Amino acid sequence: MCDIENEVVKDTVKPNAISRYKKREQAFILSFETLFSDTDIDELADNAIDGNDDYMSDYAISCAKGILEHSEEIDGYIAQNLKKGWKINRIAKVSYALLRLAIYEMLYVEDVPVSVSINEAVELSKKYSVPDDSAFVNGVLGAVAKQIEN
Fold first, then answer.
1. Which is nearest to 104 in space by CA: 46, 28, 33, 35?
2. C-alpha gyration radius of the chain
3. Which residues make Cβ contacts (< 8 Å) with residue 68, sequence separation at least 6?
4. Do 98 and 28 touch, CB atoms closer than 8 A?
5. Backbone torsions φ then ψ of 117, nearest 5 degrees
6. Residue 6: its pLDDT value, please?
7. Residues 119-137: pLDDT tens digits?
8. Domain-wise residue ranges, the chain
9. φ and ψ at residue 19, rounded to 5 degrees
């Protein structure tokens, strides 16, 4: 379960210092980076802290680790809800990382409503991807949500 509300700031802790949206954005960025690197999540987080003089939330780290731990199951949901003929390797990496994060939250984060996971993934898609990708992300996540409810 990833519901930790503290952030690590160069070896200090700041409870509730950032919004859930920012924590989710950090989780997305860590998850996105794992698509291109075999580097450990903790090392990626440390690199982000060192490189940006910033902090990384425990929520982001926990979610990124959970996504990797449950990647087979999460990817199964994605694959089952793609249009006929589509495969995961055709999905833009930004959209793929956002789908994984939202589905992880839907399945494993009890205090985040499914609708919030979907909405925030769509908003992050609008910020980090091309305009059409947000509709794609919304469509796949809507289908996954229905599948999970059944």
1. 28
2. 15
3. 34, 41
4. yes
5. -60, -45
6. 42
7. 999 999 999 999 889 999 9
8. 6-149
9. -70, 160
At 96, list the tokens.
């793929």
Distance CA 59, CA 67 (A): 12
Name the residue with higher pLDDT: 18 or 98.
98
**Helix axis angle, 131-149 relative to 93-108, nearest 10°?**
30
Q: What does the alpha-carbon distance between residue 66 and residue 39 come to, in Å, rounded to a whole number?
A: 15
| Long-range CB contacts for residues 84-91, cutoff 8 Å, separation at least 24 | none
How many CA atoms, within 13 angstroms, populate the side-chain half-sphere of residue 9?
A: 10
Which CATH architecture fits 6-149? Orthogonal Bundle (1.10)
Encoded amino acid at 132, one letter: D
Dihedral sign, Cα of residue 88, residue 37, residue 74, residue 130? negative
pTM of the predicted model, to two decimals?
A: 0.84
What is the Cα–Cα distance from 122 to 97, expressed in whole angstroms? 12
Q: Do the Cβ atoms of 133 and 95 come closer than 8 Å?
A: yes
